[in-house]
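Dear colleague,

Thank you for sharing your sequence with our group. We've completed the structure prediction you requested, and as agreed, I am returning the results in plain text so they can be pasted directly into your records. Please verify that the sequence below matches your submission; if there's any discrepancy, let me know and we will rerun it promptly.
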Amino acid sequence: MAVTGTNPQKTPTASQRASARIIGPVSRSLRVAGAFAVIAGLIWPIQAAALAWAISGWVSGDMGRTGPAALVFVLGGVLRAALDHRAGRWLFDAADRTITRERTALIVREARARAGAGSAEIAALIVQKLPLLQPWITRYHVAMVRLMILPLVLLAVTFWFSWAAGLVLLVAGPLIPVFMALVGMAAEEASRRQMDEIGSMNAMLMDRLSAMLDIRLLGATERAAADFSGRAEALRIRTMAVLRVAFLSSTVLELFSAIGVAMVAVFVGFTLLGAIQFGSWGSPLGLGEGLFLLLIAPEYFQPFRDMAAAWHDRAAGLSVVADLDALDAAERVDFVGNAKAVAPLSGPLTLSLAGAVAALPGREVPLPDLQLSAGEALALTGPSGAGKSTALAAIAGLVPLAKGGISVCGTPLDADTADAWRSRIALMPQAPHFPDQSLRDWLDPGERGVDPWPALQLAEAEGVVQRLPAGLDSRLGETGGGVSGGEARRLMIARAILSGRELILADEPTADLDPATAAQIIRALIRLKESGHSLIVATHDPALADAMDRSIEVRP
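Please find the predicted structure tokens below.
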């Protein structure tokens, strides 16, 4: 019976996938930089030979060698510096392009389809972790290329003059990669744990900051501080574990390199003293040959030193890529439409939900059936987690449906109508967000150049702007630094008025506010309705629900 052999393709390892993702797109730049670095490294034996030649001449009384040797040494140094500078330019350009590519792809994807990861974890990945790819790109590949070429060249040169010195380097050199590989496995695991702890700590910090008001009201500030202190201590322990591995690898490297250089120095010294008569291929080493071997022996171990440092950069980079891969594989759903500015959807404003079920990552959320016409105000009530905020997001086309349908202006809400539908609605999230622009520009999202003061008066926010030092030219912090929560929401109401959008979707507009401030928000929303806008509010506030035309309870 004939047996047909098969050659199934091997599944690439995690490190191979990471290299294909990070190193592959910039491999040409890394090859060029590696070539420059190798050429720069090959210049040193020439400089060492010139220096040894000059010193041996001084000993014999020939000072005429000083000028030519100095010229060779200086020119070699200038050329090495130029090559290193050029290599660095290629390397850092490759790193910048890689980080920019990964950061852009991550931001664009998360803006269109959020995964289950918290915003703090994603922010940590973008701001803190992605820059760790730079040392991997700029140091590891070049160190690997230098390690593959320079030690072999210097070893061959050493053997040319002395087989004994060459044998010392041959024995000491390969022991370093063996121990580095053993230490490297611990380095990768320590780096992965450190990256995980950074993400967890950022998530905890954002969670505590967002709940700071509740924490203070409940008198739990000491416990929150203790929790944060514990997490900071865990990060310190993870970081120290990485440093311990780094120091261990450095100790191993320096031990073998020091032993190797010392043995070469002992051999050369005793040979020059005449105590050793073996180790060279013919006559014993002269002063010039001995000095040359002493000068290139430390350089033989330098690529190993570079690789030791770059190995930890690679471990950190692999940990970052593991986080990127995990985020890539996370379940997510896209919002409806293309997020492009288009003309508003035509027709009278109407909204209808029938049997709609929102599709969230890993779960489905039933939405209430409802009807809304132009000029109506509707409150969505119900316990936390029932799906009120999800209903608002689905109405805005930010969450797709698993089943059922949403009809807007007499047409189905789908990819063809979502962008035009969003041109007729304004969304007021529970947590305000202020971009880095003046209040004047932020209040006029359509850049229509309208006077903002009537809208500010309608929202009872004119006093808020007047109290700011720069008035309408003020720039608030991202979360509204400089104004209170109630003031920020009144500013959002003014912005909704100035946007000219007909339907306002407000998520918990009176949450966490004192009764007087909440009453201001309710009055502003009523004026908004009286001016012709339609309203849908998600709320736990009975006073706000009673101020609407009708309420619908959302049940989990």
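Summary note from our side: The chain has a mean pLDDT of 83.

Kind regards,
the structure core
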